[in-house]
Backbone:
């Protein structure tokens, strides 16, 4: 463990200074993000830091344990394909369908290297085995999560922070059950992401780009599948809570508006929260807190009954899902406005009453003053007589 921590500290330093150097040469490489209507930044920013930390991750795994590399060479090939896909997208921009082809290809490769989902849980003493559906389900799960992480990369520090929290939970599972791959891969990736976050936290100096977000999503997906050896399948949902929530909210809003669920827009969770609060740092912290809560629940419930995990997850998930539902927010906003209007109406009524009372008081005082003057005059007349 001490050796691993020392190794991760070295990788942190290497990554930090490598990305700082990358920031200076990114414009010359043509890796600059130009703001558009969906951007959260106002000026051109270096992007593609994933090109740097992705390479450091791959080399870091190889140099730490050559035996692990030889046992997982096909998995490394799949990760390399995802990495190259991301780099090409950052440089030249490729379509979502083209990226999906690379992700599906890589998912099939890792499936045949042992990273497969063959069982989705035991419910009421009935084990649900996938059989021939294991391959398409595994490919779907990996592709869906990889895209979910990619979609969440919309605010400074968001995707990196969410990934770090998920990887920390995976590291704990690896440590508890003595799984070297889970522990080492997650620890190395955490160290690298933390170095990146120093330069990506608001206000960011660099973006990870698709080369980073696709790699993070893919690696986390295959590590989550490997952790199924030690945990009950349904508990993995807690691990991927925020990416799943973000994807479903986005797809729902796009479908409601008659658009393709894959069409880019500003309907992500971070857009919704930022529109409400107008505070990017608050939005990131809010989503980090949600993911942290779900990850802690994952560690508590990973050995519990799958049915219980599903009930707890969907109960909490439905609360957050409806919280970000635009219709629910509109109803809540309308209720607040009605309440505010009623309060203003009541206060106006009170002001009018107070004004009337005040006017009456002034009239009474004037009458009293007039009476006093009359009395004084009468007294003066009596005195003169």
Residues:
């Amino acid at each position: 463990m001490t050796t691993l921590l020392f190794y991760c500290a070295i990788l942190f330093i290497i990554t930090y200074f490598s990305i700082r150097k990358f920031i200076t040469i990114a414009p010359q490489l043509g890796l600059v993000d130009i703001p558009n209507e969906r951007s959260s930044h106002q000026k051109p920013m270096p992007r593609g830091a994933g090109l740097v930390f992705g390479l450091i991750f791959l080399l870091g795994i190889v140099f730490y344990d050559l035996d692990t590399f030889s046992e997982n060479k096909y998995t490394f090939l799949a990760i390399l394909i995802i990495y190259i896909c991301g780099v090409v997208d950052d440089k030249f921009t490729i379509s979502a369908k083209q990226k999906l082809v690379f992700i599906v290809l890589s998912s099939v490769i890792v499936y045949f290297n042992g990273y497969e989902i063959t069982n989705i849980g035991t419910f009421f003493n009935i084990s649900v085995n996938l059989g021939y559906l294991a391959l398409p389900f595994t490919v779907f799960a990996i592709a869906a999560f990889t895209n979910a992480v990619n979609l969440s990369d919309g605010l400074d520090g968001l995707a990196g922070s969410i990934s770090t929290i998920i990887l920390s939970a995976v590291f704990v599972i690896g440590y508890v059950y003595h799984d070297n791959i889970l522990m080492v891969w997650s620890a190395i990736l955490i160290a690298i992401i933390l170095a990146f976050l120093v330069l990506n936290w608001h206000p960011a100096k660099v973006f990870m780009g698709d080369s980073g977000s696709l790699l993070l999503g893919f690696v986390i997906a295959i590590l989550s599948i490997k952790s199924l050896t030690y945990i009950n399948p349904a508990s993995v949902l807690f691990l991927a809570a925020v990416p799943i929530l973000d994807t479903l909210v986005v797809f729902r809003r796009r479908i409601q508006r008659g658009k393709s669920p894959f069409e880019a827009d500003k309907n992500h969770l971070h857009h919704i929260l930022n529109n409400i609060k107008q505070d990017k740092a608050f939005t990131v912290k809010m989503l980090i807190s949600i993911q942290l809560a779900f990850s802690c629940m994952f560690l508590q419930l990973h050995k519990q009954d799958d049915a219980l995990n599903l009930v707890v997850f969907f109960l909490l998930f439905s609360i957050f899902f409806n919280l970000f539902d635009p219709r629910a927010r509109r109803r809540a906003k309308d209720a607040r406005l009605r309440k505010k209007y009623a309060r203003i109406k009541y206060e106006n009524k009170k002001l009018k009453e107070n004004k009337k009372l005040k006017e009456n008081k002034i009239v009474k005082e004037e009458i009293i003053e007039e009476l006093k003057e009359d009395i004084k005059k009468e007294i003066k007349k009596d005195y003169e007589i």
